């Protein structure tokens, strides 16, 4: 019995069981530090010293508290990680101003600017040929020399006629000088006799004066005849020279030369072959070579009727040659200015410079013909615009890194960019790529990327 409280003690009756007189350790559960029925002690009063705590129970209690604290800290850390995972990283790019153009892509085949079969002007045998297939030649370069014996003889005759005409002129000139001298003597004699008979008629007979006058007139006529003969001889000389030039021109055609810079794409004749004159009546005349001007190439493309207003002389176009994996620059050189009623297209010719002869005639090319052009217009990558029927939207990132879905009005579209007519401003950040996880007002971590990364699938 507890003397202080008068309540029954759990140790009552121990004296009968233990003879030593020492009470045993109390068998009290770990959570209890005293008797529940014991009244509360005043503040500062010590507990009953007979009530002791089990050390094992104390250690178990401390371990349980520690485990509970660790569990709470892990749950707090896990909650912070979940919150961090909710911020999605997105690729963004800025709205910029740039030049855009919409183009038609039309396939065409290169052909030479000029391509001819080189014929002989006069018939003859091939004496020498200096070129073969694949050779590059310059304008005026000798391709072959023909052997034409009859023209050589005609040229010799023409030279002889020229020399003969020159001699005739020399003789006519001498005849003119002699006639002029005779006329001078006769005219002087007549003038003297005429003066004498007028002053002293009795000294000279009238017959002598008449004879002198006749000789004077004859000498004058002879001078005129000599001048005419000289003129005729000069005309004969001119005729002889013209004939020689004609024969010489024909003989010069024995040297076959290149009419323009180009490439020999085929050789038809060999040394000793007979080439007929390449006239309109000689349909089966054998040509010497085929010559192609490849320094400037042509492309013939049909422009649809709806795009005819966009065709202008000098307009620049891009020409993609897949065989070379390169793009060249061309220009509109000429067009038919008439729509074909059968195809409803207008034939347009593109010229492509080929100074290094990299492009070979016959290659296929794709011409990107601009039909609509915009200068310094707002544009974004095509991946930045989402479409739902006729409705277009863009996911814009606000300054506080939140998603704002904006409706936009789009214009022309190229393979990589699209024109923005309204809904965005220059410098705005827009999301590119997959936007299925994004919602209005969502906080994101934007990462600015460039156009090459976008086109590469970033």
Walk me through this protein's architecture.
This protein is α+β, with helices and mostly antiparallel strands and 458 residues long. Among the domains are: 89-100 and 374-455, conserved putative lor/sdh protein from methanococcus maripaludis s2 fold; 149-253; 290-373, Elongation Factor Tu (Ef-tu), domain 3 (Beta Barrel). Helices cover 29% and strands 33% of the residues. The chain contains four helices and 20 strands. The strands form two sheets. It has a 16-stranded mixed beta sheet that branches. Strand 11 (316-321) and strand 12 form a beta hairpin. The longest helix is centred in the middle third of the chain and has 51 residues, at 149-199. The radius of gyration is 59 Å and the shape is elongated. The model is unreliable at 1-23 and 25-52 (pLDDT under 50).
Layout of SSEs?
Layout: H1 55-85, E1 88-94, E2 96-109, E3 111-118, E4 124-129, E5 136-137, E6 142-147, H2 149-199, H3 206-252, E7 255-257, E8 262-267, E9 274-275, E10 289-304, E11 316-321, E12 326-335, E13 345-353, E14 364-381, E15 385-388, E16 391-397, E17 403-413, E18 417-422, E19 429-431, E20 444-448, H4 451-455
Parallel strand pairs: 1-20
Antiparallel strand pairs: 1-19, 2-14, 3-10, 4-6, 4-9, 5-8, 6-7, 8-10, 10-13, 11-12, 11-14, 12-13, 14-18, 15-16, 16-17, 16-19, 17-18
């Amino acid at each position: 019995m507890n003397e202080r409280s008068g309540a029954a003690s759990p140790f009552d009756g121990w004296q009968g069981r233990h003879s030593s007189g020492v009470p045993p350790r109390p068998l009290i559960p770990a959570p209890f530090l005293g008797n529940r029925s014991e009244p509360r002690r005043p503040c500062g009063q010590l507990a009953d010293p007979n009530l002791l705590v089990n050390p094992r129970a104390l250690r178990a209690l401390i371990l349980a508290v520690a485990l509970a604290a660790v569990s709470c800290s892990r749950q707090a850390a896990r909650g912070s990680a979940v919150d961090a995972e909710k911020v999605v990283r997105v690729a963004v790019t800025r709205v910029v101003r740039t030049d855009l153009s919409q183009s038609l892509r039309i396939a065409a085949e290169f052909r030479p600017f000029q391509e001819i079969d080189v014929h002989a002007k006069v018939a003859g045998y091939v004496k020498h040929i200096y070129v073969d297939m694949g050779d590059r030649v310059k304008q005026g370069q000798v391709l072959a020399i023909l052997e034409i014996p009859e023209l050589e003889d005609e040229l010799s005759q023409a030279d002889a006629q020229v020399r003969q005409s020159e001699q005739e002129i020399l003789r006519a000139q001498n005849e003119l000088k002699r006639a002029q001298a005779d006329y001078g003597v006769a005219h002087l004699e007549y003038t003297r006799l005429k003066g004498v008979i007028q002053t002293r008629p009795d000294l000279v007979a009238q017959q002598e004066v008449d004879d002198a006058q006749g000789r004077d007139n004859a000498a004058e006529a002879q001078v005129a005849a000599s001048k005419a003969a000289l003129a005729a001889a000069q005309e004969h000389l001119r005729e002889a020279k013209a004939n020689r030039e004609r024969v010489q021109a024909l003989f010069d055609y024995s040297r076959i030369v290149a009419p323009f810079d180009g490439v020999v794409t085929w050789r038809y004749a060999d040394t000793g072959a007979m080439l007929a004159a390449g006239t309109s009546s000689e349909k089966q005349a054998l040509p010497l070579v085929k010559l192609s001007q490849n320094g400037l190439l042509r492309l013939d493309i049909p422009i649809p009727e709806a795009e005819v207003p966009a065709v202008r002389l000098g307009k620049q176009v891009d020409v993609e040659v897949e065989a070379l994996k390169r793009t060249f620059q061309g220009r509109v050189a000429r067009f038919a200015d008439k729509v074909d009623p059968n195809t409803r297209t207008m034939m347009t010719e593109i010229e492509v410079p080929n100074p290094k002869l990299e492009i070979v005639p016959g290659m296929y090319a794709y011409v990107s013909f601009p039909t609509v052009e915009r200068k310094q217009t707002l544009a974004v990558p095509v991946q930045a615009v989402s479409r739902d029927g006729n409705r277009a939207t863009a996911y814009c990132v606000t300054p506080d890194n939140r998603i704002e879905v904006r409706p936009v009005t789009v214009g022309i579209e190229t393979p990589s960019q699209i024109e923005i007519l309204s809904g965005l401003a220059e410098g705005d950040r827009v999301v590119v790529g997959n936007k299925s996880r994004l919602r209005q007002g969502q906080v994101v971590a934007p990462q600015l990327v460039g156009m090459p990364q976008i086109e590469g699938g970033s």
